[in-house]
Design brief:
The chain has about 120 residues and is mainly alpha-helical. It is about 65% helix and about 0% strand.
Length: about 120
């Protein structure tokens, strides 16, 4: 069982695979495969996509950034650097200052960025 598989099984607790998978929005066989860490038909390692991890994060109310790190999508050593470069981006700062003049799409994008930052902070 992979580290992410162990965590997901722990987060699921006593909830059945079918109940959890329905809440997440994936099949129960796929959730079982992720928890085991390998596809029982091929024996190959299975790593959920970032999109699947986002669904899992929302369903289990678990920080998305932690799931990405555990699945190997984010290198912990580079995570702080990437975050720092993001918040120190002059283009982003300029965009933020212009926000009152921006359209609804830009405001929606800012909300999405804010949600990502909150998830990062929850780690």
């Amino acid at each position: 069982m992979s580290d992410i598989g162990k965590l997901l099984k722990e987060l699921r607790g006593n909830e059945s695979l079918r109940e959890a998978s329905k809440r997440i929005g994936i099949s129960h066989t796929y959730l079982d495969t992720i928890e085991k860490g390998f596809d029982k038909r091929s024996g190959k390692h299975v790593n959920p996509s970032p999109d699947t991890l986002r669904l899992i994060s929302k369903a289990y109310k678990y920080p998305y950034i932690k799931l990405l790190r555990l699945a190997g999508y984010i290198d912990e050593a580079n995570e702080e650097e990437e975050f720092e470069s993001f918040i120190n981006d002059p283009e982003l700062e300029r965009w933020y200052r212009e926000l009152p003049k921006n359209n609804e799409e830009d405001i929606r994008r800012l909300k999405k960025i804010w949600e990502t930052l909150k998830e990062f902070d929850d780690r």
